[in-house]
Amino acid sequence: MASNLRALRRRIRSTKSTKKIFSAQELIAGARIVRAQARVEASKPYAREITRVLSALASSASLDHPLLTERQDARRAAVLVITSDRGFAGSYNVNVLRRTEELLSLLRQEGKEPVLYVVGRKGETYYSFRDRPVAETFTGFSEQPGYADAQRVGEALIATFTAGMDDDETGAGADGVLGVDELHIVYTEFRSLLAQIPVAKRMAPLEVEEVEEFDYEREDRESGVTTGDSGVPTSYEFEPSPDALLDALLPKYVTTRIFAAMLESAASESASRRRAMKSASDNAEELAKNLSRQANQARQAEITQEISEIVGGADALVSAGADD
Amino acid sequence: MATLHVELVAVERMIWSGEASMVIARTTEGELGVLPGHAPLLGQLAEGGIVTVRTAEGEDMVVAAHGGFLSVTDRGVSILAETAEISSEIDVERAREALRRAEETGDEPDALAAARRAQSRLRAAGQDA
Known about the structure:
The complex is a heterodimer of chains A (324) and B (129). Chain A is an alpha/beta fold. Chain A has a domain at 53-207 and 237-269: Pyruvate Kinase, Chain: A, domain 1. Helix content of chain A is 59%, strand content 12%. Chain A has helices at residues 2-42, 44-58, 92-109, 121-129, 147-163, 216-223, 242-323; strands at residues 76-82, 113-119, 136-138, 182-190, 196-204, 237-239. Chain A has a five-stranded mixed sheet, with helices on both faces. In chain A, helix 3 (92-109) links the parallel strand 1 (76-82) and strand 2 (113-119). With 129 residues, chain B is an alpha+beta fold. Chain B folds into two domains: 4-87, ATP Synthase, domain 1; 91-124. Chain B contains two helices and nine strands; from the N terminus they run E-E-E-E-E-E-E-E-E-H-H. Chain B has helices at residues 92-105, 109-124; strands at residues 4-10, 14-27, 30-34, 41-44, 50-55, 60-66, 69-73, 76-81, 83-86. The model of chain B has no long low-confidence stretch (mean pLDDT 84). Chain A: F-type ATPases have 2 components, CF(1) - the catalytic core - and CF(0) - the membrane proton channel. CF(1) has five subunits: alpha(3), beta(3), gamma(1), delta(1), epsilon(1). CF(0) has three main subunits: a, b and c.
């Protein structure tokens, strides 16, 4: 009985200290979400501007840039998966990886061979445990991605995409490097604190996508400016030529989209982690409560037993004395 | 007097936005000044170049912009850069240090790009590079 009580007390202590870790993680993740959301917001002006510049260019340039042209009989497709470096984030990684598997089987059905590029240590271990080949991994920045990280990933992807231009049925083409014909990205979109949804998108060949519909007319109304000529396409001067500009701009656009995906994923990761840690610390609280109830019962039982032993002993002494 | 609405946007954040009377920049084709009423224009900024924004108050704001584009529309001017720093925020000592390190590293593309960035930071801060 006494040993039972000691075991219970030990479990209560360890449950309580684990709970402290969970709630600390919860608080950290909570603080990180706010920062991550602010970074997502702060990166929007650039994304908006670069999209606007690109749409302006699209109407003037010849648009036969390799990043824009659909390739006939695409054979290989690169898939960039964005996962987290650390666990403790509930179903965050599982969801992204499941979405990736769906995309991979879809690509295989279309007769394309998928090539994996992984961001985050969790994705890395997932594929290495299953002995699946991964072309390249990037780790160490999933919670606070910088633009330099996105650039590194972007450069690798664009290089392999460019190398895929001259591939044919027999293998690598003139450059001797086996590249890819499509670029896909799987990341977690941050809808709200409660909803993070894994999404898969095609990055290249790209259709110029409006990152965010920008409402000029509303802005004009709010700032009291009247331009009066909205709807008329502007004809631009270009320095250097439109095609050279497109060459310089498109890789940056791809990198911007990777960066945006990384920032959204970072916000989602923190949100998932906070939710997971909240329920973990609630569970630990509950468990500690049940355990201390059991421990109190055991303690009372022990006392009751001692009392009845003493009473029994005294009774025995009294009855022994009465015999004399 | 007519003014230009200028937005200076880096990848991670909007750095500055406000009214200006003139913007001077160097594109890959050459030096260029933008006054209010300029025709719409898209340009690629020269590597390691600096952009000068003359604000409506008549002060010159010098910016080191790396990997950037300039877009002029009837709504104003936007300067897009991968990284951009306003001269008043540039740490001259650190830029010198970065330049020295980059020059020691030699001729690799990364080191050359780093050297160009450091030079433009120094130029923007009004120092010799």
